[in-house]
């Protein structure tokens, strides 16, 4: 049976695991520093497709966490990676922000509003009726329907906001077509992350705070799964699911190596 001592690489969710409302979770900075000091390959994962890795690295740095942009893997990057493998040099009509459009451009895709191969829907704060109408018409005309993530709502200081899953539901209702969702809980996102750092599922752990995305996708990808209780899930939530993570911890601080115990010198020596 695989244990934590077998783990050589780590994937970790960001919100609720490393940060909570832009405040670092206790132990997160120390864990990241330990991984860097020990040369442990790791990636910070997020379903948010609005921001580029550079944006997210700067956001984490402002919170007191040092994560280089090459150590961040977003649903936008996973989507671009998937589409590049499916149709190199393809075209896409995109509803989304810079995180998604930049990832697709860097993957060699062309953004177009004329007969696109794909309609790609991601997170944005500016969903427009005009863009949604175009997406519906393109899909009804034969374009393939892709979504970066399934999250129906997202947080804001005023309350929840409609997110990618809510908009794709609207498009599905109008077209009869379900999107292929690349982000969590699709283990596809984890497999592309593993490829990014040259890791193998047998020796990689996944740290998350959600049973319905992080843990189920980690299990399906064959990873060692660690649920932390600093985000969405609590013990009552865990009991609702028919599967279990390999470990349940209070926070990422519980993953830190134990402090060495200094032995006291006997008196008189």
Automatic annotation (TrEMBL):
Pfam families: Hydrolase_6 (PF13344), Hydrolase_like (PF13242). This is HAD-IIA family hydrolase. It comes from Microbacterium aurantiacum. Gene3D superfamilies: HAD superfamily/HAD-like. CDD domains: HAD_Pase_UmpH-like (cd07530). Belongs to the HAD-like hydrolase superfamily. Keywords: Hydrolase. The keyword Hydrolase applies. GO terms for molecular function: hydrolase activity. NCBIfam families: HAD-SF-IIA. The keyword Membrane does not apply.
């Amino acid at each position: 049976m695989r244990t934590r001592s077998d783990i050589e690489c780590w994937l970790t969710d960001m919100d609720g695991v490393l940060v909570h409302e832009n405040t670092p979770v206790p132990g997160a900075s120390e864990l990241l520093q330990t991984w860097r000091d020990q040369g442990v390959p790791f990636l910070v994962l997020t379903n948010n497709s609005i921001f580029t890795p550079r944006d997210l690295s700067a956001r984490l740095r402002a919170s007191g966490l040092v994560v280089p942009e090459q150590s961040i893997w977003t649903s936008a990057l996973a989507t671009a990676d998937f589409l590049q493998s499916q149709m190199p040099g393809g075209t896409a009509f995109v509803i989304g922000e810079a995180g998604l459009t930049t990832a697709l451009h860097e993957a060699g895709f062309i953004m177009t509003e004329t007969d696109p191969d794909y309609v790609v829907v991601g997170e944005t704060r500016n969903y427009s009726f005009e863009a949604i109408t175009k997406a519906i018409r393109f899909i009804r005309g034969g374009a393939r329907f892709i979504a970066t993530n399934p999250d129906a709502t997202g947080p804001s200081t005023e309350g929840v906001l409609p997110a990618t899953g809510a908009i794709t539901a609207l498009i599905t209702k109008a077209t009869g077509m379900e999107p292929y969702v690349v982000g969590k809980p699709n283990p596809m996102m984890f497999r592309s992350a593993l490829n990014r750092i040259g890791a193998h599922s047998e020796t990689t752990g996944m740290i998350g705070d959600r049973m319905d995305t992080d843990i189920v996708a980690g299990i399906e990808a064959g990873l060692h799964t660690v649920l932390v209780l600093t985000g969405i899930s609590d013990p009552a939530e865990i009991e609702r699911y028919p599967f279990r993570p390999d470990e349940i911890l209070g926070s990422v601080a519980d993953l830190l190596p134990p402090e060495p115990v200094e032995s006291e010198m006997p008196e008189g020596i």
